[in-house]
Specification:
207 residues, two-stranded parallel ribbon, mainly alpha
Length: 207
């Protein structure tokens, strides 16, 4: 195992993520406002912002877990990650969406966290499909399929990923449409990753 190579690959992927996700917003046209009546019935729970933010930890922790047990699983995860970002951002480019968020709490640490998250995406585009949701789903899929990974860790990642998906709705960063459209993206990119020769890529990357 070569953890320096692992870190290099992961940093490149995350850089690709940030450049593509934020860059495409400046190329998008007028967004379509989305949302259903059911979204109004989903409660606003600002406290879920901590679970929402744990996704950023998961972007490093879950691939590290995969690499610990299977370099091939990690490589397939990376392929699916790159495909997910590419597909999602193409959708954002041609079908930009947005919706109206509630006002963030003005007091306390939770209020600060919500305001920071809301402010980080000031243009508030790129809603459907939710990358937060599709990536959380892919993490769950790859953890469940990872050879050698203990059942307890598979279960932990699955619960974590499910909570992240729910948190996107409770903190009003996404509406139900965003989460639902993330499902086919996650499944398609996860399946496509198995079309690549992972053992050869492990050798090429020196993992």
């Amino acid at each position: 195992m070569n953890w320096l190579r692992f870190l290099t690959v992961l940093v490149v992927l995350i850089a690709y993520h940030l450049i593509l996700y934020y860059g495409v917003q400046y190329l998008e046209g007028k967004p379509r406002t989305v949302g259903w009546a059911v979204d109004q019935k989903i409660p606003y729970r600002p406290g879920f912002i901590y679970i929402y933010c744990s996704w950023f930890v998961a972007l490093a922790a879950v691939p590290a877990l995969l690499y610990l047990f299977s370099a091939e699983a990690f490589v397939r995860y990376c392929i699916a990650y790159a495909l997910n970002l590419t597909v999602s951002d193409l959708i954002f480019l041609f079908v930009p969406t947005t919706f109206t968020r509630p006002d963030a709490p003005q007091k306390g640490l939770t209020g600060f966290a919500v305001r920071t998250v809301y402010g980080a995406n000031h243009r508030f585009l790129n809603c459907a499909p939710s990358v937060h949701c599709s990536m959380a789903m892919q993490m769950m899929l790859f953890a469940l399929a990872c050879p050698g990974c203990p059942v307890i860790l598979k279960a932990a990642v699955s619960v974590w990923g499910a909570l992240i998906v729910v948190s996107t709705l409770f903190v009003k960063q996404h509406v139900l449409l965003d989460a639902l459209t993330a499902i086919p993206v996650a499944l398609a990119c996860w399946g496509a990753a198995y079309l690549f020769n992972a053992p050869n890529l492990v050798q090429i990357l020196g993992l």
